[in-house]
Specification:
The chain is mostly helical. Among the domains are: about 210 residues, Alpha/alpha barrel (Glycosyltransferase); about 190 residues, Glycosyltransferase, CATH 1.50.10.10. Helix content is about 45%, strand content about 5%. The strands form six sheets. A two-stranded antiparallel sheet has the order 1-2. Strands 3-4 form a two-stranded antiparallel ribbon. Strands 5-6 form a two-stranded antiparallel ribbon. Strand 3 and strand 4 form a beta hairpin. InterPro entries: 6-hairpin_glycosidase_sf, 6hp_glycosidase-like_sf, GH15-like, Glucoamylase, Glucoamylase_active_site. Keywords: Carbohydrate metabolism, Glycosidase, Hydrolase, Polysaccharide degradation. This is glucan 1,4-alpha-glucosidase. One of its GO terms (biological process) is polysaccharide catabolic process. It catalyses: Hydrolysis of terminal (1->4)-linked alpha-D-glucose residues successively from non-reducing ends of the chains with release of beta-D-glucose.
Length: about 575
């Protein structure tokens, strides 16, 4: 192995040198930063860039949404365009999944300051989205119809709201879950900013579109919850639209939708439905345990797949399948499994990061004027690298040309940062770091860059550290540092003006694939929100734009918040019906 290392390093240096000779037509940050003193200090530069990039991300995300978006002027109001790219590749469609994830980001922005001028525009978008989803649910499509809810598995539509009838991977069963989650978040946030709505006649009509108990289901959330609760055992295509089977990402968002849907149904007096959704969620928790592969030592994205199982979808499933710690998302967290801070997610992140670090030549490129991949780097501790979808990915942004042609994705790279920030927040909120045997490899890799020894050798199976322990504070610092290093990867490969495409090239590092991908901007904003929360909890920052209305000490037991009436237990939630 020692004899091979010099040859490996020489090969990567030659490959990198070749990459610099590739002609490119787009203006973008160079791969090799200058050697000035300022350039060699990446942390201040990252902080400065992130402050500017947050505004860029909000602007470019909104540009892809109708009404008002400059890239979506011919789209039906409420449409989220996946990308303004109409050819090579054509992403000018509205995906149910992408749109719902984007709307969740907009709800966070709205909850930040409901009285702001931006909030007024966000309400216009959210209301238009709600109206459009009501229509799309009823649009006959290749997946089926609304009468039996089979049509809810349709993954994408044209931007004018008509059905896409071409060949595609269908059904995709994550869309209804993500839409239900987004609209439940909207219901919570809007109701919190309009405390008299719940008991008003105006509120009766407003809530009716989102949720009302009648069967067959007529309201948007109710229809989605019925679809999920009766179809979660059925196979479908994964979030990358390539493999049919049972998938971790899909199951995680379905579980969250059912958990939160049970609380919502109880609030509307839909007691039978609440019990049904809750029972299905309990069954799903048992089912989800099957995704942990003891032999591989990590979660697998798809059951009984020929692939390795490592997949960015696992990180995304954990993130979107659980409410954000410390945020306005006042929902109960007990019962959620595979949270971002769980041992299983963290060791899966470690395995994926190590695979991607060694897979993409750009992850071996010089950084800030220094060639970091030396002998020490071959066995380096955990740090930020470009993360792609999965090891076997052959899609390069335009087509599937050759095996292993895939590239790092911006949204996957930022998802790694968000996992680390949310883990830091959990440790800060709980006041303890619990190290178990299953998660020990992650913590050892995280701390190997420090002088702090994780545990005496041999590692005991279970140990807890508290704020008085040096290791507790060192771990928190490292989580934030490594989270920042993933965001710094995004900074290095973003366009000069802050643009984020779908991917960045595995060799050159330049943007590639669909330009201005909406999900890329939304994923970055979610990571920045998670960063804001952990910074505020540690007292390192004042509340920023995103976190202005986030409680420093959230009531984690809250299950549902109706205006100014907070229920601590589902059994005593005040209820209403559409006729009350």
């Amino acid at each position: 192995m020692m004899l091979l290392i010099p040859f490996i390093l020489v090969a990567y240096v030659l490959l990198y040198a070749f990459a610099l000779t590739v002609p490119l037509d787009i203006a973008q940050q160079p791969l090799l930063d200058g050697l000035s003193t300022e350039e060699l200090s990446p942390a201040p530069r990252l902080d400065t860039w992130l402050k500017k990039e947050e505004a860029v991300a909000v602007d470019r995300l909104l540009a892809n949404i109708a009404p008002g978006g400059r890239n979506a002027q011919d789209a039906t109001p409420g449409t989220v365009v996946a990308s303004p790219s109409r050819e090579h590749p054509d992403y000018y469609f509205q995906w149910v999944r992408d749109a719902a994830i984007t709307m969740s980001s907009l709800v966070d922005l709205y909850a930040d300051d409901p009285a702001s001028p931006l909030a007024a525009h966000l309400l216009e978008i959210l209301d238009a989205y709600t109206s459009l989803q009501h229509t799309l649910q009823r649009t006959v499509n290749p997946s089926g119809t609304f009468s039996d809810l089979s049509g809810l598995g349709e993954p994408k539509f044209h931007t004018d709201g008509s059905a896409f009838t071409g060949s595609w991977g269908r059904p995709q069963r994550d869309g209804p879950a993500l839409r239900a989650i987004a609209l439940m978040q909207y219901l919570h946030a809007y109701n919190a900013s309009h405390p008299t709505l719940w008991s008003s006649e105006e509120g009766v009509e407003w809530f009716k579109t989102l949720y009302e108990p009648s069967l067959p289901a007529q309201s948007i959330i109710k229809a989605d919850l019925e679809y999920i609760s009766h179809n979660w055992r059925e196979s479908g295509f994964d979030l990358w639209e390539e493999v049919r089977g049972l998938h971790f990402f899909t199951a995680m968002v379905q579980l969250r939708a059912l958990r939160e849907g049970a609380e919502l149904a109880a609030a509307f007096g839909d007691v039978g439905a609440s019990s049904w959704y809750r029972s299905q969620a309990e069954d799903m928790e048992v089912f989800l345990e099957e995704f942990w592969d003891l032999k591989k030592g990590h979660i697998v994205e798809t059951l009984r797949s020929k692939r390795s199982g490592l997949d960015c979808g696992i990180l995304l499933g954990s993130l979107h399948g659980s409410p954000l710690e410390g945020s306005h998302q006042n929902v109960r967290r007990d019962g959620h499994i595979f949270l971002p801070h769980s041992d299983e997610i963290l060791v899966t992140l470690l395995a994926l990061t190590r695979d991607q670090r060694d897979r993409f030549p750009i992850n071996f490129a010089p950084r800030d004027g220094l060639l970091v991949h030396t002998l020490e780097a071959v066995t380096m501790p955990l740090q930020g690298v470009g993360i792609g979808r999965y090891p076997e990915d052959a899609y390069n942004g335009y087509g599937s040309s050759t095996p292993d042609a895939g590239n790092p994705w911006f949204l996957c790279t930022t998802s790694a940062a968000e996992v680390l920030y949310r883990t830091a927040t959990h440790i800060q909120e709980s006041g303890r770091l619990h190290v178990r045997e299953r998660g020990a490899p992650f913590w050892e890799a995280l701390l190997s860059a420090t002088d702090t020894e994780l545990l005496p050798s041999p590692t005991p199976p279970d140990r807890t550290y508290y704020p008085a322990d040096q290791l507790f504070n060192t771990t928190l610092a490292r989580l934030k540092e490594v989270g920042g290093s993933f965001l710094d990867v995004v900074r290095r490969h973003a366009g000069d003006e802050g643009s984020l495409s779908e991917q960045f090239d595995r060799v050159t590092g330049y943007e590639t694939g669909a330009r201005d991908l909406t999900w890329s901007y939304g994923a970055l904003l979610q990571a920045l929100l998670a960063q804001d929360i952990t910074s505020v909890l540690s007292g390192q920052a004042q509340l920023t734009h995103f976190a202005a209305h986030i409680s420093k000490y959230p009531e984690l037991a809250v299950s549902f918040n109706i205006g100014n009436r907070t229920s601590m237990d589902s059994a005593c939630i005040e209820t209403r019906t559409s006729g009350s």
